[in-house]
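Both lines are retained for reference:
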Amino acid sequence: MASPNNITYFAETDARNERVKFGIKDEDRLRHIYSVGKTGMGKSVLLENLAIQDIQNGNGVAFLDPHGKTADLLLDFIPEKRVKDVIYFAPFDIEHPIAFNVMEDVGPERRHLVVSGLMSAFEKLFGEESFSDRMQYILQNTILALLEYPGATMLGINRMLSDKNYRNAVIANITDPSVKNYWTKEYAGYTERFAAESIPAIQNKIGQFTSNPLIRNIIGQQKSSFDIREIMDEGKILIVNLSKGLVGENNANLLGSMLVTKIYLAAMSRANAGPQELAKLPNFYLYVDEFQSFANKSFADILSEARKYKLSLNITHQYVEQMAEEVRAAVFGNVGTMISFRVGSFDAEILEKEFAPVFTMEDLVNLGKYQIYLKLMIDGVASQPFSATTLPPAPLPEVSFRDQTVAMSRKNYTRSKAEVEKAIVDWHESEKKLGANKETMPTKEEDANRANKKRKQNKIIPAVPITPAIPDEKLKINPLAKALEEAIKAKNNTKNKEETISLKELSRKNKKRDKKSPSPQNVQALKEAIEKAKANTNIKMDANDIDKKESKSKKEVPEETLRKILQGE
């Protein structure tokens, strides 16, 4: 238990055989606690003891456990009065999937953080060598587009790349000019060969997660079951059991990375409360065991910014080399309390710089189980290095509310598997209709067909502004007018106002639609109209050409002039 002075205990001094229990103040915990050491040395027990005290003292806690052992243990330490505060996130509980949508409710000023977090997670999972710059560019613009689309989830990534209607519906909702330009200009201009090389590779990688029912039923729900900002402000408890043996390593790492990103976003949103309101908000304690599994490049920003928003990080892992260079620099540059269990020679060489001259490399590689060297943050100042022994595992309580806690969490934060899967199927079905009535981008095949059609045309009528339709009574007089009216209607309906119409095509349509030749009266009337029009135009068209099946004129006739001719103006 913490003392009235808000000290959380975790170790005992062992100098001169004097055993004095000590801990760390709440304010100093906001400078973060980092511990490193070989497996089996007591790192997880250290986190357990800290988390149990936070839970029993009413603090807000999030615990991410890639092994599952500590997450499972913490359920036994939930007091009866806090059973309703617990959200137990167990992805392997497939009959009761919890909803977690990392794309939900992300404001414009925070979208780049979500993209950065997801891109870093994918890069870490798949490796930089198999994730080309072009693939990253496409995926980045896909995520940015989806973040603006209401109800979007990660399931939309592959759909955006394969479903034209869905893509057009998303594009219509984009407000970011750069992202809009990408989809309407760059993506639309990709060659078939280029698209075939890049897009399937992205779909294959994303599909590894979205095709797995265990993960799909979690990330495919549009509305998250829990609000992390609410968890933080109301001091609730989020226990995340990411047991790699039950969930899968890549699945666990991706979910963990997304959760860390979402917690960071929730913490940053506290800045909107203002300085006075922020001061009243409680600290929130995030625990991450084996944090290198979730520590992508964006983790460096979290370490440097979290303290401002009263988010305390308690992180541990096995060896320093697991961290990327920039993450390592962020850890060593921002962590207030540093704890070393027994480490290997490589890590000892690095850590010696932190603990010298008090402790050497030899000291660091020869520590026993539960023995530590540490620099403790005390009133905002790091102490000189000293040795200690961590506290033993907390004894199990006489009464456990584990079953009640899990049942309450399922009731409040999950839905049945059947209900979730039906909702996802309904989403797929409803999306088929999206974009049907919206402006769409022409496909590559449509562009090619249009270009070929233009090249084949012998006589081109220049485009003119859309004009009113020819009156019905005129259509009754001349079958040529019928064909012209049909062509004008088609032209009025096209988006491309520069599209032109061939006289040969008009003649062909006229012959198919009405095999009867025009009556002599109609021919004579049209001849007179042409002669009348010639006086006011420079068109070289002989009235006798009307008698022929197809005009032999090589001159281009403006559409407006033809209209006047047919209407007798």
